[in-house]
Amino acid sequence: MTPPQANLMSMMTELHDLLAHLDRARCERLLIDMVDIYSPSYAESAVVSRVCAALQEASVPYRLQPVVASPGAPGRANILIELGPQPPELMLVGHLDTVPYFSDEHDAPGSTLEGDVLHGLGSADMKSGCAAMVEAVCALVDAGARLRRGLLLALVVGEEEYGDGAAKLLESSHAPLAIIGEPTGLRPSLEHYGYMELRLIAEGRRAHAARPDVGASAIHAMLSTILAVIEQVSDAEPATRVSINPREVHGGDSLFVIADRCEAALDIHLAAGVDTAALREALATTIEASNADHPQCTVSSEELFFAPAYSLNPDDAPMQTSRRAFLALQQPFTPRPFPSHSDGNRFFEAGIAPLILGPGDLGVAHTRDEHVHLSEVHRAAELYLSLIVHHCIHEH
User: Fold this and answer.
1) Which of 129, 198, 277, 283 is deepest in the core (most CB within 10 A)?
2) d(CA 144, CA 139)
3) Which family, according to the similarity comment (predicted)?
4) Which domains does the chain have, with CATH numbers?
C-alpha cells in the first residue's frame, strides 16, 4: 500500500470511529427542545440557555460572547465553542433566532413530530443545522479526538434582522473557511445571492373617495410603480438572476378619502454577476417613468440595506478539501446557488470563504408549513463531522 493510500485508509478509519459517537437521540432531543422555544431576533436568551445546558451535559467547553442588547432584550449572547489550536482553520456557524411567529390566533409556537418529519418555526431555518453542528462537536469531544488545526463553532443571534451576532463574532474571529448551516437540502452553495432592501414612498393628493378626478391616489401610483419595477427590472428568468418581492404595502385611511400616502418595502435578491450599478440605474429610470405616468403623485425610493453577492472558486483548496469530505460519505458534491440573504454575505466581506450547507428546504422556511426531515438532520451531523475531520484532523 502506497503512503497516500495508507493515509486515506487511516483517515477513513478515524472518520468511521468518530461517526460511531454520534447520538441520534441526543440530537433529536435538542432539536425538538429548540423548536419548542420561541426565539425571534432579540429574544434568543431561552434557546441560548437550552443549548448551553446540552453542551454542559456533554462536557463540551464553551463561552458566551455578549452582543449589544436592544431595549427589552438584555443579556443577548453568541455561543462560542473553540477546539484545537486557535485561531481556527474552520468555522461552523449557525443562527439561533427565527422570524417572528405569525399573527393568526389559531397558530401557536412549538413543534409537531409526524414520523420522520419535525414541524415548527425554525425547524429548517435553522435550528436543525445548529443541532446537527452541536451533535458533531459533542461526538468529537466524546471520542477524545485530537485536532491538528483549530475549530470554532459559533451559534449567533440576530441573523433574521441585520446580523448583529455575526458582526460581533467577526470583530475577533477569522478562519479561511466557514460552513454556514442555512437550509440547502445538504447541497453545498458556493454562489450566494446578494440582497437589496428598498423602501418606496408615494405621495398624492387627498380628496373625497367619490372624486378620484379631484384627488391623486398614492396607492394607485404605488401599485403601478411596483408592477413596473417587477416587469422592467426583473429579467426573463427572475428566479435565477433577479428576484423582486413586494414584502409589504400599506397606506390609505379608514376615512372615505383618496389616499395621499402609501409606503412599500421591496426585497430584491440578485445573483452573482448581476451588474448592481445597472440594476440601480434601471430602478431609478423605472420610478422616474412611473412618476411621469402619475404627474400629480410623487414616488421616491430609499435603499435601506445592501449585501453584495459572491461566488467561491470550486478549485480553491478549501473547496477541494470539502469535496473530499462529501465523497468520504459517498455523497456527491453538487453545488447550487443559495438564492437568499444570510450571514454568508457578511463573512465573505470579512475575507472568509462561506460555504452554505445545511438540512432543510429554504422553500418552507418562514412559513406555517416549515419542517425538516430528521433523517436529513442526522446526515447533516455526519457531513459536519466529516468536514471537521478533513479540515482539522487529517493531514492536508
Assistant:
1) 129
2) 9
3) Belongs to the peptidase M20A family.
4) 3-192+309-393 (3.40.630.10), 195-306 (3.30.70.360)
Q: Is 292 exposed, middle or buried (0-12, 13-18, 19+ CB in 10 A)?
A: exposed
Q: Quick check: 373 pLDDT over 60? A: yes
Is-contact 359 373, C-beta < 8 A? yes
The secondary structure of 304-348 as a DSSP string is: EEEE--EE--TTSHHHHHHHHHHHTTT-------B-S--THHHHH
Grid coordinates given for 132: 446537527
Residue 241 has pLDDT above 70, yes or no: yes
Q: What nine digits make up the cell of 102?
A: 405569525
What cell was used for 209?
Answer: 373617495
pTM to 2 decimal places: 0.91
The model's pLDDT over 111-160, given as tens digits with 9 standing for 90+, comes to 999 999 999 999 999 999 999 999 999 999 999 999 999 999 999 999 99
Residue 217 DSSP SS3: coil
Look at 79-93, 195-209, 214-228, 239-253 and tell me which has the smallest mean pLDDT. 239-253
Q: What's the residue count for the chain?
A: 396
- Helix count (H) and strand count (E) of the chain? 10, 15
Query: Phi/psi class of residue 185: alpha, beta or left (left: φ > 0; alpha: ψ in -120 to 50)?
Result: left
Sheet with 298-307, strands from edge to edge, namely 242-251, 261-270, 194-203, 298-307
